[in-house]
């Protein structure tokens, strides 16, 4: 049995290589999962729907006819609130994925 820096305990070099390889594959999976995150939120009045990616960057913005009756200030505040809600949802998904990854790697 060999103890490596960081507390990794393995019985052979093959076991160490296997463990590291599994972690690399899991990191790739995490990267792919993070890249696929999309969150959509509609405004309370359903005037607009915002979609963001896992970084909170807007990827889609859709409007209904309800935006025609909005004031510029109402439009702005609704857009900002809806985008913030979408970003919060995406960040929550991202945090869950990272927490799951960290729990797996810690084993």
UniProtKB/TrEMBL annotation:
<protein>
    <recommendedName>
        <fullName>YbaB/EbfC DNA-binding family protein</fullName>
    </recommendedName>
</protein>
<dbReference type="InterPro" id="IPR036894">
    <property type="entry name" value="YbaB-like_sf"/>
</dbReference>
